[in-house]
Write a structure and sequence with these properties.
It holds the Pfam family DUF4384. The chain has 338 residues and is mainly beta. It is built from 1 helix and 29 strands.
Length: 338
């Protein structure tokens, strides 16, 4: 398996007029006008203009397109000066002739013979694509050696961006100067992130400020996320005054937030309303609930505060405020009108 080492910026040497030169972006460019163009990019940045991050060990795919039939040469330049030649290589199907308008992927999706794996050191790295209408002789840059372990890829015999630039300048000098061109793509190698070892629980309820307990320990209010929980099973209890507690068993996995969404049910209690007037109509918070019969009316209510109003013909209305907690009895007697 071929690994791409971290690529470094190209620091290429300048040359005489009409010879390869170096742009402000430190890439080898052709000073002679040409209608040949090449574009290279990575799988994380189709525009080729950004510098996406790749973790060490992550696989990368490269893409190349040309506007004319051209032979394409791909190089990776490492931060430490190490150079890898991606193309040409000897793996099946990976010849370096790219047809006009064709987009080539390296490695090809249907070619499992190799992969391109990002390696260190960390830093901003660069891929150089050189396209030529005619094949180039790279003997002074790289060689395919039968004795090497990875025989599908050439061994690059130069090291460092300056040496590569000088060698490429010599390679392209014999050919017509309007028959080649270059492009580069950058990406940033970063250290792989350590795998997450903890997870989180988020609790949401219909009662704002309900108290949350995890393994019988109060941890905060509903509407919150409780992080840094080791993977495992937890008992979650949500409690609020006047509501029935809800208990759930939750399994937490590393790197995952578990959502606990519950609806608390209001606790109910029995309230008996006594009065001296049978047939009096009973209103609870403005809603009629029944009439007094045999001197009383019994209601089942949520635990809350209520206004109780009794009305009857010929009597002044009776009003009482009551807090229903554990149930009980209240008396609302009515006085006759004068």
């Amino acid at each position: 398996m071929k690994k791409i080492l971290a690529l470094g910026t190209m620091a290429l040497a300048t040359a005489a007029l009409a010879q390869p030169r170096i742009s402000a972006q430190s890439i080898i460019v052709n000073p002679t006008p040409t209608d040949l163009s090449v574009r290279v990019w990575t799988d994380k940045d189709p525009s080729g203009q950004s510098t996406p991050n790749y973790a060490i060990g992550e696989r990368i795919r490269l893409f190349v397109t040309t506007n004319q039939d051209a032979y394409v040469y791909l190089f990776n330049v490492g931060v430490n000066g190490e150079i890898d030649q991606i193309l040409p290589n000897r793996y099946s199907g990976d010849n370096n002739l790219v047809r006009a308008g064709e987009t080539r992927q390296f490695p090809r999706a249907n070619n499992p013979q190799y992969s391109l794996d990002v390696a260190g050191p960390a830093g901003v790295n660069r891929v150089l694509a050189l396209a030529s209408r005619t094949p180039l002789n790279l003997d002074q840059i790289s060689q395919f050696r039968a004795e090497q372990t990875n025989q599908g890829f050439a061994t690059v015999t130069v090291r460092g961006s300056e040496n590569l630039a000088q060698a490429l300048s010599i390679v392209v000098t014999p050919i017509p100067q309007n028959t080649w061109t270059t492009d580069t793509a950058s990406y940033n190698v970063v250290a792989p992130q350590a795998p997450a070892r903890t997870g989180s629980i988020t609790v949401n309820t219909n009662v704002p400020g309900a108290t949350v307990y995890i393994n019988d320990r109060e941890v905060g209010d509903s509407g919150s996320t409780f992080p840094n929980l080791a993977a495992g099973t937890y008992r979650v209890r949500i409690s609020a005054p006047g509501y029935t507690d809800i208990n759930q068993t939750v399994t937490v996995r590393a790197g995952v937030t578990v959502n606990v969404n519950v609806t608390l049910q209001a606790q109910r209690a029995t309230l008996t309303i006594r009065s001296n007037v049978n047939g009096a109509r009973v209103f609870v918070n403005g809603q009629e609930q029944g009439v007094i019969r045999n001197g009383a009316l019994t209601l089942t209510l949520n635990r809350d505060d209520y206004q109780i109003v009794l009305v009857a013909p010929g009597y002044a209305a009776g009003v009482s405020q009551v807090q229903v907690v554990n149930g009980g009895t209240i008396t609302v007697n009515l006085n006759r009108l004068q």
